């Protein structure tokens, strides 16, 4: 048993992509979900909530930009008030803006990426941790393979995804005595709108005028050890659920890579 039945999970960026699948997987395990996303994603959030409710679990929706501490705190407080407890925090919301060399990234792109991907994670933890009860819990922070290595044209994203590893390692030290475990998950390319979009296809295939998804998939497949272009959101969600579950009860301060072998490929 995962030990997640009857627990309450907070997921940021729950409207679409991997965040939606995290909510579905936790509901499958018998957990209720507090779901946060920014106000533009309100329709997406409702669609995710429906999927949680179809699984017989409760969903509480909150709209907040994770870069706004007051808004995140208010939404988390309201969710915990409704569901009565908080056991698991999944800091998933993140952005990836079009790439440029580090010395050409605009100050605005740099700041927004740090505000969402790093400070937003801290806000999520700051708002959520005080609600986790004396029986302990789990924090899972979604980093990236860019949290373990650099790639050209991603300085702002890569810096933010490395930084959350430092945050997680520190939190693991601070929260271990309270039996709250803290880990990061490092996906390679995931089949979500963050990757499956024409701008990304053009970045991956500058040699083509109008690259298709299949053209982009060729390049991504060549980067992996396993013969796939990307992992599916459920593969990341399964890793998150594992880390949040009793199956991982003595795992804290670690980095779990879900990347089809991307970071280990040597040739
Ligand atoms: N897709 C990939 O290839 C990939 C790879 C590695 C890591 N990741 C990470 O996984 C996480 C989820 O990414 P995804 O692929 O599902 O992306 P996505 O773009 O499909 O979904 C991101 C979700 O986060 C929400 N969000 C964005 N900014 C927000 C903000 N400021 N406040 C609140 N919500 C916000 C969006 O509305 C959306 O619902 C991110 O942290 C991302 O960096 C993704």
UniProtKB/TrEMBL annotation:
<dbReference type="GO" id="GO:0016491">
    <property type="term" value="F:oxidoreductase activity"/>
</dbReference>
<keyword id="KW-0560">Oxidoreductase</keyword>
<dbReference type="Pfam" id="PF13561">
    <property type="entry name" value="adh_short_C2"/>
</dbReference>
<dbReference type="InterPro" id="IPR036291">
    <property type="entry name" value="NAD(P)-bd_dom_sf"/>
</dbReference>
<dbReference type="InterPro" id="IPR023985">
    <property type="entry name" value="SDR_subfam_1"/>
</dbReference>
<protein>
    <submittedName>
        <fullName>Short chain dehydrogenase/reductase</fullName>
    </submittedName>
</protein>
<dbReference type="InterPro" id="IPR020904">
    <property type="entry name" value="Sc_DH/Rdtase_CS"/>
</dbReference>
<comment type="similarity">
    <text>Belongs to the short-chain dehydrogenases/reductases (SDR) family.</text>
</comment>
<dbReference type="InterPro" id="IPR002347">
    <property type="entry name" value="SDR_fam"/>
</dbReference>
<keyword id="KW-0520">NAD</keyword>
